[in-house]
Amino acid sequence: MLACLINQVESENISVCHFYGDPHIILFSEQLESAQNRYWCKLSGEHLILQNNYVQIEASMQHDTWLIEKFNMTFMRNNETLCTITDHEQNCKSSEIRIRYPSSVHMEIFYAIPDLYISITPHQYQYKWYDISIRMPTELIRQSNGLCITPSTDKCFIENNIVEDNRFNRTSKSICEMYLLASDQARALLNLPNDYKTRDHALLACIHDFETTNNKNVGKY
Q1: 124 and 14 in contact (C-beta within 8 Å)?
Q2: pLDDT per residue over 183-220, tens digit each?
Q3: How far apart are CA 67 and CA 177, in angstroms?
Q4: Which residue, 175, 149, 213, is CA-closest to 21?
Q5: CA distances from 187 to 4, 58, 95, 180, 191 (A)
Q6: Is 179 exposed, middle or buried (0-12, 13-18, 19+ CB in 10 A)?
Q7: SS3 label, residue 117
Q8: At what angle do helices 170-189 and 196-213 cross, to 10 degrees?
Q9: Radius of gyration of the chain measured on its C-alpha atoms
Q10: How many beta carbons lie within 10 A of that of residue 33, not counting itself?
């Protein structure tokens, strides 16, 4: 799951939640220097990813694969619905919500008033799934709930210490580092900045997916 994380460096008042793969969750951090906890969640069915006064994001995960197969986003202001975006349709006539496509499949959503940005990237390998990244101010994070804030205690397992404790097969790390090298080369060709924190997250997710599925191709995506 290497190509899914948006290249967004956090600032003092902004944080990012990544919800991707099968699924892995990198939570928002409310302070710049605090670590972002990373989880792997065995979730199926519909779940609330994020909710506050401006947006509600729900995602549906496939049974057994736990990949994000559907999503539903509702954008609001003053309890009025401005826009709805799902995996298969859009109903968005408000000028306050801006949608653009950096590529034929990658969707970006901007909501200026709360300074909210969402990136949605579809993938296809045996199954189709979506990766979702959400960037917003820390003040709004404190007013929000959902899996990006508090993961399920009985379905989500913290991943933070897998690499640090060397609790992995050396082969899986070597393969995942090869994928990351290809990603680094592509970033250099596109003249994009390095984000070492995101790189570490991607390495960890790749190792975990490879070791839990014994399929090196799963870790690649």
Answers
A1: no
A2: 666 656 656 555 555 566 566 666 656 655 555 454 44
A3: 23
A4: 213
A5: 13, 31, 33, 10, 6
A6: buried
A7: strand
A8: 140
A9: 17
A10: 6
Whole-model pTM?
0.73
Give residue 86's Cα distance to chain centre: 16
pLDDT tens for 61-94 read 987 778 899 999 999 999 999 999 999 999 998 9
What are 167's two structure tokens?
């609790």
Longest Cα–Cα distance in the chain: 53
- Please state, in angstroms and rounded to a whole number, the distance separating the CA atoms of residues 101 and 119: 10
User: Nearest Cα to 28, choosing from 40, 38, 42?
Assistant: 38
Question: What's the rounded Cα separation, in Å, for the pair 36 and 28?
Answer: 6
> Residue 211 is inside which H or E element, if any?
helix 196-213
Sequence-separated (6 or more) residues with CB below 8 Å from residue 144: 50, 51, 52
Rounded alpha-carbon distances, angstroms, from residue 110 to 75, 95, 213: 11, 11, 35
Stretch (H or E) spanning 170:
helix 170-189
Which helix (H) or strand (E) segment holds residue 109: the answer is strand 107-111
64-82 burial string, b = 16+ CB within 10 Å, else e?
Answer: ebbbbbebbbbbbbeeeeb
The C-alpha atoms of residue 221 and residue 209 are separated, in whole angstroms, by 9
Q: Both tokens of residue 176?
A: 């995942």
